[in-house]
Amino acid sequence: MDVAPLIHKLADTHSLSLDEYEALIVNRSEASAKLLRNLAVRERVRIYGRTVYVRGLIEVSNICRNDCLYCGIRRSNPNCERYRLTPEEILSCADEGYTLGFRTFVLQGGEDSYFNDDVLGSVVREIKSRHPDCAVTLSMGERSRESYAYLRECGADRYLLRHETADETHYTQLHPREMSYAHRMNCLHELRELGYAVGCGFMVGSPFQTAKHIAQDLKFIETFRPEMCGIGPFIPHKDTPFKDYPAGTLELTCYLLSIIRLIHPSVLLPATTALGTIDPMGREKGIMSGANVVMPNLSPVNVRKKYELYDNKICTGEESAQCRECLNSRMKAIGYEIVTCRGDVIREAV
Ligand code: SAM
Predict the structure, then answer these.
(1) CB-based contacts of 123, cutoff 8 Å, min separation 6
(2) Ligand 1 centroid to residue 236 C-alpha, Å
(3) Does residue 320 line the site of ligand 1, with CB under 6 A?
(4) Helix, strand, coil proportions of the chain in percent (round to 5)?
(5) Which protein residue's CA is at the shortest distance from atom 25 of ligand 1?
(6) Does the beta carbon of 327 lie inside 6 Å of ligand 1?
(7) pLDDT category, 289, cuts 50, 70, 90?
(8) How many angstroms separate the alpha carbon of residue 313 from the centre of ligand 1?
């Protein structure tokens, strides 16, 4: 089946039916990937030029009460050496990041009860008071509406919470029984209502994932209209129940990045570390498929290796300044430029 007409329809209307999304995936070819990529890059250049937004990722804790079957920091992994940064350590990572030109900090971690509202709220307040021109993004998992509201009052601007899969049955195959699809989705809606810029997303090639599931993910992204969307390949971790499942591919991840750019031309779309892990040029290829964000690591080097969500994660040995420099030159080499600004979503008239 020639999917070119579907691709042009998507570029013109930013919407396809579930069946059409599925057909676009099942019948993909090198030619369809190229067409999608060209149209996606045209859109990202129209809105964001050849700039790449940069976010400083601070991995605050690998202690997690959850037991997601795919994740290396799941609570029942006895081989995970646990750590948690102190508020002072987080603040000094942000200070260093500021000097290096970062204007967005992403605080990400396992669901660690130490980071209650008091602790996390005061860290957010302090970053915002030291660096009022910066955005703070949280990626700290599922919390109560009250907690999200309080953290927003403290100054948090954005929240990343991947939906992981938009199919309820698939969700139950990836998570233990105590976690629920309904709760995850409800969190995303609450975050939106509270005025956060919200990011959802999913792993490409996660165990049991089918083209139908991905079509549902794309439909969810189309209707939810997230400001950010994090997708990256699933990569197995040796100490998880999914250790023998194959990793997602660069090819499908890039294909989906292009589709998502066409669904929401202004979406903030990272070329993830996971993409850079499965291919040495993965992040560059992500950018050349329509992504416009990179998230180098600002965590202290002595904990980097411990935040191992999947095997062989890259950039665990370098200092923050080295990571920043490395990405600068990687982006330059492909004709793009990392910029120093908050990098908010550019809203278009619809
Ligand atoms: N606890 C927070 C949460 O649940 O959103 C943030 C941390 S969580 C580790 C961040 C993301 O890592 C998850 O949303 C998941 O998609 C991704 N992740 C976890 N294990 C992975 C794996 N094996 N391969 C690729 N991505 C993975």
Answers:
(1) 87, 90, 91, 107
(2) 12
(3) no
(4) 45, 15, 45
(5) 234
(6) no
(7) very high
(8) 13
- At residue 17, the pLDDT reads 98
pLDDT of residue 79: 98
Which CATH number do you get for residue 33?
Answer: 3.20.20.70
Question: 46: CA distance to ligand 1 center in Å?
Answer: 31
Q: How far is the CA of 321 from the centre of ligand 1 (A)?
A: 25
Give the CA distances from residue 274 to residues 98, 280, 281, 315, 316, in Å, rounded to whole numbers and listed in that order: 24, 10, 11, 11, 12
271 within 8 A of 294, measured Cβ to Cβ: yes
Binding site membership of 234 for ligand 1 (Cβ less than 6 Å): yes
Structural domains counted in the chain: 1
Residue 230: phi and psi, rounded to 5, are -100, 110
Tokens (6 digits) for 43? 């859109």
- Per-residue pLDDT at 349: 55
In a mutational test of the pocket of ligand 1, which residue from 55, 65, 70, 71 has the highest number of ligand atoms less than 8 Å from its CB? 71
Q: Which amino acid is at 332?
A: K
State what percent of residues in the chain have pLDDT above 70.
99
pLDDT confidence tier of residue 82, bands split at 50, 70 and 90: very high
Residue 108 Cβ contacting ligand 1 at under 6 Å? yes
Probe target for ligand 1 pocket from 309, 311, 312, with the most ligand atoms within 8 Å of CB: 309
Cβ-proximal residues to 215 (8 Å cutoff; 6+ apart), any chain: 18, 19, 21, 22, 25
DSSP of 256-308, one letter per residue? HHHHHHHHSTT-B-B--HHHHHHSTTHHHHHHTTT--EE--B-S-HHHHTT--
Distance, CA of 245 to CA of 209 (rounded, Å): 11
Residue nearest to atom 13 of ligand 1 (CA): 162
Name the pTM for this structure: 0.98
275: domain range?
4-349
